[in-house]
Specification:
By secondary structure, the protein is α+β, with helices and mostly antiparallel strands. The chain has a single domain, classed as Alpha-Beta Plaits (2-Layer Sandwich), CATH 3.30.70. Helix content is 18%, strand content 16%. The strands form two sheets. It has a two-stranded antiparallel ribbon with strand order 1-4. Strands 2-3 form a two-stranded antiparallel sheet. A hairpin with a 5-residue loop joins strand 2 and strand 3. The protein is globular and about 35 Å long. The structure holds iron/sulfur cluster (2 copies).
């Protein structure tokens, strides 16, 4: 299946400023806290992470930050558990696990 124009622009974007004008959040979703209905949550395995930041770019919730060592960190207080980050991570460094 071919990518939409929006998806192609997203894939080429290297910084936030390159992103197309889509309905994305540009701040952490502190007004939309973690929902009680989240069934799965992402866990990042740093040993597999290549620091490509594709997860950061595609998270629709801006729930991913970058730590001092350059690794992505999930803000579980805001993550909705959609799994997009895990789906987009080519080296499969993000695992979706069941909530406790
Ligand atoms: S998409 Fe995967 S490899 Fe890239 S920064 Fe995120 S966790 Fe690391
Ligand atoms: S599971 Fe969804 S909301 Fe949570 S960090 Fe990944 S892409 Fe963002």
């Amino acid at each position: 299946m071919s990518k939409s124009k929006g998806a192609e622009k997203m894939a080429k974007a290297e910084t936030y400023e390159d992103l197309p004008p889509l309905p994305l959040m540009d701040v952490l979703t502190d007004t939309v806290p973690m929902p009680s209905w989240r069934a799965m949550k992402p866990v990042i395995h740093n040993e597999k992470c290549t620091k490509c930041y594709v997860c950061w770019k595609f998270c629709p919730d801006m729930a991913i930050a970058i730590d001092d060592e350059g690794y992505p960190v999930i803000h579980l207080g805001f993550c909705k558990g959609c799994g997009i980050c895990a789906n987009e991570c080519a080296p499969e460094a993000i695992e979706m696990v069941r909530e406790d």
